Amino acid sequence: MSRIGKPLIPGERRLLVAVGVFVAAIFGLLWWWLDINTDPVVSFPPARAAGVGYDLCARAGSQVQVILTRNPAQPAEQIDLSEYLGAKQQGSAYYGPTPEPTLAEIRKIDSPNAPHIAVLRYALRYPMDAPSYQIGDHRNDAFCKMTNALFVAGYVRKADANWNSAMDCYLDAIQLWTAIPHDYSLFPRVSYLSIVRSEIWEVIDHLDAPHARADAQRMEQLITRQQSLVEIMQETKYYEQTCLLCYFHQPGWRYTSEGVLPDKLGVLLMSKRKIMADYTGYVDACIANAQFPYAARKADPPYPATCFDRNMNRSYAGIPFLYTMHIAQNALLTVSLALHAYQLDHGNYPATLTALVPGYLKTIPDDPFALKGLLRYRLKGQHYVLYSVGPDGKDDGGVPSKDGVKTKPPKNGMPVTLNFLKNNSTGDIVAGVNIR
């Protein structure tokens, strides 16, 4: 019997309302899901091609080898010589599964790298501009490999007492990471070069005067080409924005965030645009803070609210210290090379650093940890004390910090506990003493 034209009974009306609410909820959820998964719009600078020198260095770096393989059937027994020598330099005992590498074995690995290092030295004469970052571009890894090869080459030459050649290898590594405009890789730069500079302090006193003077002037040129902190952080921002956009397209990315349940739910319900906006706002605040000298910097901006963003950006607050430490160590190294050359030429160290200008250096580097002023220097008997005031900004008269001091190898064979300079370290950073 037809119901057309007849009013709905209460049960039918409730059913119709429920169906309407259900359909509206479905469409609402669908709209909400599409909205939170809409990709953010990010502004990037124009695409940038790699410089000729950068490409040549990357190709050379991809060809070097620093892995010692005694038994190809046992890949687990391979020894990364750069890691082994780095640990040895820091005083750590060897706990490898096979006997400790011999100098002859290290030479055998180093020798085939010579033509690739020659290509690197040729490439460093040309523009080293880093390209715009693209997912899957592993040329930066080749720079790390080349740095390791130079570290091994320096070790072999140092073992042969070929001090000038060893220094050339170590300074090539510094130039490799210093001469790259538009590069985002601060952390490899700091970690690799910290180990390289530790070797340099053991070589300086063995250099002849002409080589020490030339090395000081080479370092001075490199210092003038160092990227600013703002430039590095801006490039890091573009790099991580690219990674974040790529991450948004990985299946299940919302379910892989770390942290407690509220953080996980926050990522699950937050839009891609909100996550990108939080990240970008945080980094922009860090970049604005990076424009101030280290001693005048403002408080670090707060982390974004989501655990997802905190995982990405956990290191930004420490970047100003790492960068300033890197600049300070390069400055101390430069002046120390000039002082060594001066001492060989004159039989004594100068009364003041101004005596180094212009014969050995064009200018005396500023102390990057001080609000103003040059590196500090004073004579101490037949030697000298050269130092930066360090992260606390206080001039302690050259009393070294207890942090960053190279540890002597333990007699009981136990691993060394490394003690690095930190942003809350007190005392001064003294050349040749506080080297980490």
pLDDT < 50 stretches = 411-417
Sheet with the most strands: spatial strand order: 3-4-5
The first-to-last residue Cα distance is 92 Å
Mean pLDDT: 84
Q: Determine the number of helices (DSSP H or I, runs of at least 4 residues).
A: 14
Annotation keywords:
about 425 residues, mainly alpha, three-stranded antiparallel sheet, two-stranded antiparallel sheet, 5 strands, about 50% helix
Topology, element by element:
Blueprint: H1 10-36, H2 52-63, E1 67-68, E2 79-80, H3 81-89, H4 103-110, H5 114-123, H6 139-159, H7 163-178, H8 186-203, H9 209-224, H10 229-247, H11 261-269, H12 272-290, H13 307-313, H14 319-346, E3 376-380, E4 383-388, E5 429-430
Antiparallel strand pairs: 1-2, 3-4, 4-5
Could you explain how this protein is built, in words?
This protein is mainly alpha-helical. Among the domains are: 49-206, no CATH class; 231-320, no CATH class. Helix content is 50%, strand content 4%. The chain has 14 helices and five strands. The chain has helices at 10-36, 52-63, 81-89, 103-110, 114-123, 139-159, 163-178, 186-203, 209-224, 229-247, 261-269, 272-290, 307-313, 319-346, and strands spanning 67-68, 79-80, 376-380, 383-388, 429-430. Strands 3-4-5 form a three-stranded antiparallel β-sheet, with helices on one face. A hairpin with a 2-residue loop joins strand 3 and strand 4. Helix 2 packs antiparallel against helix 5. The protein is elongated, with a radius of gyration of 28 Å.
What is this entry, summarized?
The protein has 14 helices and 5 strands. It is mainly alpha-helical.
